[in-house]
Write a structure and sequence with these properties.
Blueprint: H1 25-37, E1 41-43, E2 55-59, E3 62-66, E4 77-81, H2 84-93, E5 98-101, E6 108-112, E7 118-123
Parallel strand pairs: 4-7
Antiparallel strand pairs: 1-2, 2-3, 5-6, 6-7
């Protein structure tokens, strides 16, 4: 029995006609943060213009607008959630900045999204 050996030819680099994925990385990171880490659902608004780069997430019962093109991260955000500690732990595990202000039961948790937007997590009443 004879076997044919195949030799690998030198690999030629393949150039894609599409932009590098690094161009889309900030948007993907934000989508992952708001959907997976904060537990939000991305929603489509009926009056949304197709040219707008804003994404909208429903986190518990609050609508949050996220714009990947903003360099300043946007205005600070306050989220009333069922379990701020669970969300802060997921943020910490995902490598995001988590801060604690105060002591004891009155302490307030802050997390920072990938664009630097400060999010204050308060317990739902």
């Amino acid at each position: 029995m004879y076997r044919t050996r195949y030799s690998a030819a030198p690999h030629e680099p393949w150039l894609s006609e599409y932009p590098p994925s690094a161009v889309h990385a900030p948007a993907c990171t934000l989508l992952s943060f708001y959907a997976d880490v904060l537990g939000g659902d991305e929603v489509s608004l009926a009056d949304r213009d197709g040219a707008d780069d804003a994404h909208h997430f429903l986190i518990e019962d609050q609508l949050v607008e996220v714009r990947p093109s903003r360099d300043d991260g946007g205005d600070a955000l306050q989220l009333a959630v069922t379990s701020p500690l669970d969300i802060a732990e997921r943020c910490w595990d995902a490598g995001c900045t988590v801060a604690l202000e105060g002591e004891g039961l009155s302490a307030v948790l802050y997390v920072t999204d990938p664009l630097g937007r400060l999010i204050r997590l308060v317990p739902r009443e």
